[in-house]
Amino acid sequence: MVQALREIIELSEFDEASFREASSLFRCADPEEASSQDVMRFLTEDAVDMERRGTTRTYLILNDERWADGEVLIEGYFSIALKVLFFSKDIDAALLEETFGNPKQVNCPAFLIGQLARSETAKKGSGREYLRLALQYIAEASDIVGGRFVYLDCVPEKQDYYEKEGFRFLQHKHKSSLVQMYRVI
Prior knowledge:
- This protein is α+β, with helices and mostly antiparallel strands.
- 39% of the residues lie in helices and 28% in strands.
- The chain has one domain (2-184): Aminopeptidase (3-Layer(aba) Sandwich), CATH 3.40.630.30.
- It has helices spanning 5-9, 16-24, 34-53, 64-68, 93-100, 126-145, 159-164; strands at 2-4, 57-62, 74-86, 107-118, 149-154, 168-172, 179-184.
- Strands 1-2-3-4-5-7-6 form a 7-stranded mixed beta sheet, with helices on both faces.
């Protein structure tokens, strides 16, 4: 079951401390990796605040059976936002021309998949399912407000994974070891 964090927050009985406790039980498939620690920290420390400020929308994938029993077990989640994607000065001009229509373009509006995670208890392959859900939500938003691109930042080790899902290398993220990948919606 996919549940929008915004809808949970809007419930009159929402208790932020209880949410933090439930979300602190979430463990990524590789909890010792630095990128996984960032994903786990976001959920417990930043998601509610960013949701309230309207900067990000976070969607929780909850275990249906546990939910029916009145328990919250987060099997995964993703967050999406609308951002301005800035291009580095050393980006390939041919790529800008081919993809964005202007070899001198310095930025463009784009949807960001800011977080994408599956828990260590989620079945293998569910990460791809969560990515497809995120892309489906972004496509719906694109139909309403426009926008042609979606991007994400990933560690270099995940670049092949995202390429198999239709993303292409865009650039190295400024002042970071992360890789920015994009996809046309």
